């Protein structure tokens, strides 16, 4: 059965092209032309991923993304791939802060969109068996790589699939300093653009979820001029 996707995009010509291309690759894409109808279709079709344009006629994609993350239950964790008109770094940073899992600047090659969709879905675990549970514990922090959950003192932490993979990458290498390039290459399989601050945005959101005081972190430490290190001893 084709995997269901939702595309929220007001450019009907672009949407038709994307829907046809992704349909040939095993996806069933529902299209919505504005934010309100997109949110309604999200709840009626429960897609595995949302392709979300930043510029929409009724509300911008950032607001749509914020509303998705505020939905009840599993819908709030639906992966979001955001399309930005100019690839403005600030648009990407704000989108990631709002909870987007990835971004793609316009214009884009359909093959790159397909590759990014597949990468996000792999990280999210849709359509693949859940691996045997491997739990890492660091004081009150518990990371279950099989169930893809993170808890602090028994309370679940809200992370995107990409942020979860970033955390696991660091935790599996506790005590080892990793550069931004090494982290991104491990998680995403591509080198980091030297001017891309998305890794820092994600680290900030992870810290907000797992640190008692994100401004004075004890778990994920910054090594100035190098990258990050996950502390072995935390509590």
Description of the molecule:
The protein has 8 helices and 12 strands. It has helices at residues 12-23, 35-45, 61-69, 89-97, 110-124, 161-171, 180-188, 198-210, and strands at residues 3-8, 27-32, 49-53, 80-84, 102-105, 135-138, 141-144, 149-152, 155-156, 178-179, 220-223, 227-230. It has a 5-stranded parallel sheet, sandwiched between helices. A 4-stranded antiparallel sheet has the order 6-7-8-9, covered by helices on one side.
Strand content range: 15-25%
Structural class: alpha/beta
Number of helices: 8
Number of domains in the coordinates?
Answer: 2
Topology (elements, then pairings):
Elements: E1 3-8, H1 12-23, E2 27-32, H2 35-45, E3 49-53, H3 61-69, E4 80-84, H4 89-97, E5 102-105, H5 110-124, E6 135-138, E7 141-144, E8 149-152, E9 155-156, H6 161-171, E10 178-179, H7 180-188, H8 198-210, E11 220-223, E12 227-230
Parallel strand pairs: 1-2, 1-3, 3-4, 4-5
Antiparallel strand pairs: 6-7, 7-8, 8-9, 10-12, 11-12
């Amino acid at each position: 059965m084709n995997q269901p996707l939702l595309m929220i995009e007001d450019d009907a010509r672009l949407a038709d092209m994307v829907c046809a291309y992704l349909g040939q690759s095993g996806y069933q894409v529902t299209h919505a032309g504005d934010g309100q109808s997109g949110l309604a279709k999200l709840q009626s079709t429960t897609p595995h991923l949302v392709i979300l344009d930043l510029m929409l006629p009724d509300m911008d994609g950032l607001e749509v993304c914020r509303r998705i993350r505020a939905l009840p239950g599993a819908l709030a964790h639906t992966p979001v791939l955001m399309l930005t008109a100019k690839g403005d770094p600030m648009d990407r940073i704000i989108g990631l802060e709002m909870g987007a899992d990835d971004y793609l600047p316009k214009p884009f090659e359909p093959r790159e969109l397909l590759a990014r969709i597949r990468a996000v879905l792999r990280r999210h675990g849709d359509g693949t068996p859940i691996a045997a549970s491997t739990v890492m514990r660091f004081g009150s922090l518990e990371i279950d790589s099989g169930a893809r959950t993170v808890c602090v003192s028994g309370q679940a932490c809200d992370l995107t699939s990409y942020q979860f993979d970033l955390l696991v990458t660091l935790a599996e290498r506790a005590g080892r300093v990793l550069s931004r390039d090494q982290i991104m290459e491990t998680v995403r399989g591509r080198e980091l653009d030297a001017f891309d601050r998305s890794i820092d945005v994600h680290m900030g959101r992870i810290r907000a979820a797992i640190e008692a005081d994100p401004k004075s972190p004890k778990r994920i430490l910054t090594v100035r001029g190098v990258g990050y290190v996950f502390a072995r001893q935390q509590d």
